[in-house]
Amino acid sequence: xxxxxxxxxxxxxxxxxxxxxxxxxxxxxxxxxxxxxxxxxxxxxxxxxxxxxxxxxxxxxxxxxxxxxxxxxxxxxxxxxxxxxxxxxxxxxxxxxxxxxxxxxxxxxxxxxxxxxxxxxxxxxxxxxxxxxxxxxxxxxxxxxxxxxxxxxxxxxxxxxxxxxxxxxxxxxxxxxxxxxxxxxxxxxxxxxxxxxxxxxxxxxxxxxxxxxxxxxxxxxxxxxxxxxxxxx
Length: 233
Description:
The chain is α/β, with parallel strands linked by helices.
């Protein structure tokens, strides 16, 4: 897809991978609707518009979608389901509220956003949905059972829906990033983000690579990891 002039929705746009993705999309000529609970600091661009949205609530997603079409036009070409969070802890001491918060954001929010854009993408017979899963969607991790469960769900959802919509000219790509230097690790005891991790810009670059593939070329899954993940010295 030639991204020049195309409309892209990016969830979780305020920081990390979402913010980096919005910036790279803008550099490629896209019009970006940034959805998030807070506006990204320092992102000023005539092709960027922020829409306040908490993806945990379907009515908020529906309102953000309506507002996006009203402001940017009916056609929606790209959805990057990036909004997500991780909370660590052993299952037998885990907060039920935290469990629900992760599923409401990482799984239910992704479903609400995907459901919102699909009718328009089907009318266009053109679209690309990118779901940000995690290495945690491919293997279990001690004290991260809840987060892994959400990302396994994203993986299953992505691999199923791509088969549903491929004949409508809609691509679905699922990314499985390893450790990336973002605020994600702020809430993970014993793990600190460091420069040996991948950078948000690296993941954003991979997203744009998948988006810019020729029409009949479809990248379904992308796993990515840092080459030298341990902090040196």
